[in-house]
């Protein structure tokens, strides 16, 4: 029996690609195992977005090798692409596979005529792909909600970001393929699909006849049978009035926006190469809130960018404290070799950076709790998850506006779309809901 183990670090695009590799192997007679020591092949899909993510990727590789030294180890993903020599030096790593060849991993393992030694080592430490790569049929994975990668790569080249080098230029899944994948996932019983990409809002800009992300959303509203789609992340300048209005008018688009801000200081934003200012961002958030008062808005914040003064940090904190946002994802600045910001002076001292991240995360917790409490007594569409809550044994539901609720009920409710009342919050701060029939 062919047994494989796969682990994923980093973003939703990585998760989609790991699920795609796993699905292809399973469809061809392989068995996925959750115990590393049982596998004959172990695949590590790495991340490089921060130095810490790269270190964690190497730690995951070494941990697997210690646990199962006899397994064949294949390493792919962004860290494998940007620092292949470093990854390849780890003893017992059998193959290092860049983004251009990672879609061959399953094919190579399945073929009796090929060995994993035939997988090519990355020729360059940056991605040169120009064509979109996806999986056929659509990726299902082991989640109640499915990921669908509709776009890959990025042309923005923000001064701190390694991702455009790791992933290459922006490229999009054709419209008819998006619709075909959504239809397939609908047939397989999925009620929610998460539209994901490296620069999701840039979908269609690379086509010979340019299309927009708004065009895609309109077509999904008109033609897709899927119950609902969720936008994984979208840049501020790509959330148009039309997209806000479309989401407000059509339940198929979740009332949830995840928006990368990065800094609430105009000088830092300019130095980062971000194409908006804090006034634009404030107006956008207020517009979404006015149009969709119950919508979730998650914000990415990058702390400690070179030159970030106490005043710049305070401006960021004050901006976010004064806006109706729902949660924060806080990241410390990580100098990435090959990016302009790697050589920027005026680095923030580690101790100060740690304090700023802690303060911003505390604000994020306050915002999340206020958002949760503000939705008690409200009714939302929700998807009941396949996996029950480990602690309570209760069902879990994810609402359209990204609340997680504990729900009483039998297994017949699993994977179903229900209307749900946000009923209460318990002593441990967990929301409870009541399905409405």
TrEMBL record:
GO molecular function: 4 iron, 4 sulfur cluster binding; metal ion binding; tRNA (N(6)-L-threonylcarbamoyladenosine(37)-C(2))-methylthiotransferase activity
Alphabetical list of PANTHER family matching this protein: RADICAL SAM PROTEINS, THREONYLCARBAMOYLADENOSINE TRNA METHYLTHIOTRANSFERASE
The MTTase N-terminal domain, residue ranges: 2-114
Keyword Magnesium: no
Organism, scientific name: Desulforapulum autotrophicum (strain ATCC 43914 / DSM 3382 / VKM B-1955 / HRM2) (Desulfobacterium autotrophicum)
NCBIfam families referenced in this protein's UniProt entry, alphabetically: MiaB-like-C (TIGR01579), MiaB/RimO family radical SAM methylthiotransferase (TIGR00089)
Family annotation (SUPFAM superfamilies): Radical SAM enzymes
Domain Radical SAM core: 140-370
Gene3D superfamilies assigned to the protein according to its UniProt record, in alphabetical order: Methylthiotransferase, N-terminal domain, tm_1862 like domain
Lineage: Bacteria, Pseudomonadati, Thermodesulfobacteriota, Desulfobacteria, Desulfobacterales
Cofactor: [4Fe-4S] cluster
Protein name, entry field: Methylthioadenine synthetase
Keyword vocabulary terms for this entry: 4Fe-4S, Iron, Iron-sulfur, Metal-binding, S-adenosyl-L-methionine, Transferase
């Amino acid at each position: 029996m062919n047994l494989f183990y796969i682990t994923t670090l980093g973003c939703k695009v990585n998760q989609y690609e790991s699920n795609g590799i796993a699905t292809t192997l399973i469809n061809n007679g392989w068995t996925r195992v959750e115990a590393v020591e049982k596998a004959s092949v172990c695949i590590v899909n790495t991340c490089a977005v921060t130095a810490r993510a790269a270190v964690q990727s190497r730690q995951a590789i070494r941990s697997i090798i210690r646990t199962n030294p006899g397994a064949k180890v294949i390493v792919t993903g962004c860290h494998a692409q940007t620092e292949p020599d470093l990854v390849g030096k780890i003893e017992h790593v059998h193959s290092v596979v860049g983004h251009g060849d990672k879609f061959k991993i399953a094919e190579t393992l399945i073929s009796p005529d090929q060995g994993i030694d035939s997988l090519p080592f990355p020729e360059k430490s940056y991605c040169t792909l120009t064509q979109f790569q996806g999986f056929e049929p659509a990726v299902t994975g082991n989640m109640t909600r499915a990921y669908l990668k509709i776009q890959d790569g990025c042309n923005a080249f923000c001064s701190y970001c390694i991702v455009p080098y790791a992933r290459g230029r922006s490229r999009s899944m054709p419209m008819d393929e998006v619709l075909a994948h959504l239809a397939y996932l609908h047939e397989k019983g999925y009620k929610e699909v998460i539209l994901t990409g490296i620069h999701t809002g840039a979908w269609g800009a690379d086509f010979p006849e340019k299309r927009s992300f708004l065009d895609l959303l309109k077509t999904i509203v008109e033609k897709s049978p899927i119950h609902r789609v969720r936008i994984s992340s979208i840049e501020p300048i790509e959330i148009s009035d039309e997209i806000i209005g479309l989401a407000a008018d059509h339940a198929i688009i979740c009332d949830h926006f995840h928006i990368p801000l990065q800094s609430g200081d105009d000088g830092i934003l300019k130095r980062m190469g971000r194409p908006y200012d804090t006034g634009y961002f404030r107006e956008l958030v207020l517009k979404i809130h006015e149009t969709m008062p119950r919508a979730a808005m998650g914000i990415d914040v990058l702390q400690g960018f070179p030159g970030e003064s106490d005043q710049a940090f305070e401006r960021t904190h004050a901006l976010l404290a004064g806006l109706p946002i729902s949660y924060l994802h806080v990241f410390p600045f990580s100098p990435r070799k090959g990016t302009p910001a790697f050589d920027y002076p005026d680095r923030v001292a580690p101790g100060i950076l740690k304090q700023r991240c802690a303060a911003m995360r505390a604000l994020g917790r306050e915002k999340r709790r206020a958002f949760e409490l503000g939705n008690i007594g409200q009714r939302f569409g929700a998807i009941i998850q396949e996996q029950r809550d480990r602690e309570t044994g209760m069902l879990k539901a994810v609402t359209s506006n990204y609340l997680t609720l504990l729900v009483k009920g039998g297994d017949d409710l699993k994977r179903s779309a229900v209307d749900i009342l946000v009923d209460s919050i318990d002593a441990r701060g967990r929301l409870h809901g009541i399905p409405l029939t």
